[in-house]
Amino acid sequence: MTKARHVLCYVAIAGVLPYLLLKIVWVAGGTLGATDPTFLREPAMIAGNAFTAFMDLVAILVVLAFTYDWGQRLPAWLVLFPIWVGTGFLAPIALSSPVIGLNLAMEPGDGAQLATWVTPVVYGSFAWQGFTLPAAFLLYARARWPHVFTGTAPRGPVGVGTGAGAVLALATGLAHVWWAIVPGDGVNVASRFLDGVHGVLALAAAGAVLTLAGRRLRGRLVLAWTGSGVMFAWGFWAVFTAVAMAGDTDPVHLVLACVQALGGVLLALGLPGTARSVARERAFQPTREAAAQG
Fold this sequence. Notes:
This protein is 78% helix and 0% strand. The protein is built from 9 helices and no strands. The radius of gyration is 21 Å and the shape is globular. By secondary structure, the protein is mainly alpha-helical. Residues 283-294 have low confidence and may be disordered. Helix 2 packs parallel to helix 4 (118-144) and helix 7 packs across helix 8 (217-244).
C-alpha cells in the first residue's frame, strides 16, 4: 500500500506540472503557446491564470499529504476540502477525455489565440489529474478512515439541508441533461457530452444521498462526493468567470450556476455527519453484541 501511494503521488505530480508551468509562464508575463499574446494581458485572464496556478500548487501539496505520514495528522477539513473541489473540477474532464480527444483531433482549432498544442496539453493534464488525484486520495482515505469503506449508514430521515441539496441537484442535473440532448448553435460534441456528464453526476449524487440510510456507504458515498464536488466546483467557476468578465454571461446560466454551487455545498455538508454516525455505530456494535449474547 505504501509503495502504491508513493508511485501515485509522483505520477500525479507529473501530470500537474505541464499545466502549472504554462500558467506560471503566463502569470510571469511570458507568451509561450500564445499566437495572440494580447489576450493574456486582459484582467480576466490574469486573474484566471493566477487562480488556476494556485489551485495546481495546492494539488501538489495535497497529494504529498496523501503520501507521507504527516498528512495523516492534518485536520480532516484541510485535506478534504481541496480534494473535494479538485475532484469536482477534474472528474467530468477525465470521464469525457475520450470524447474531448476525438473532438480535438477532428477540430484542432484555428490558432487565433493559442497554438494548436496548448489545448491538448491542458486537457491531457486535466485528465491525468482527474484519474490520479482521486486514486491517491482513495488510498489515503482507506488508511485514515477505514470504517467509511466497510460501514453501513444508520437509518433515519434525510436532513433538511441534504434534502434541499438533493432537490437542487435534481434541478441542475436535468438542466444539464437537457442542454446535452437539445442541439445548440456553435456547441460541439465534446461540450454537449460534458454537459451530459455534469447532469448524470448531479442526478447520481441526489440519488445517492437519498438512499444512504441502511446501505453500505462505499459506492453511494463516492457518487455523493463526486457529484456534489462537480456541482460546487463548476457552479463556483461559472460565477467566478462571470464576475471576471463583468456581466458578459447569460443570466439564466448564471442563476443556475449559483443554484448548482449551493446544491453541491448542501449535499456535501451532510457527508461528514454520515461518516461520523457510521463510526459511532461501529463503536457501539461490540457492546450491543455482548449484551445480546449475555
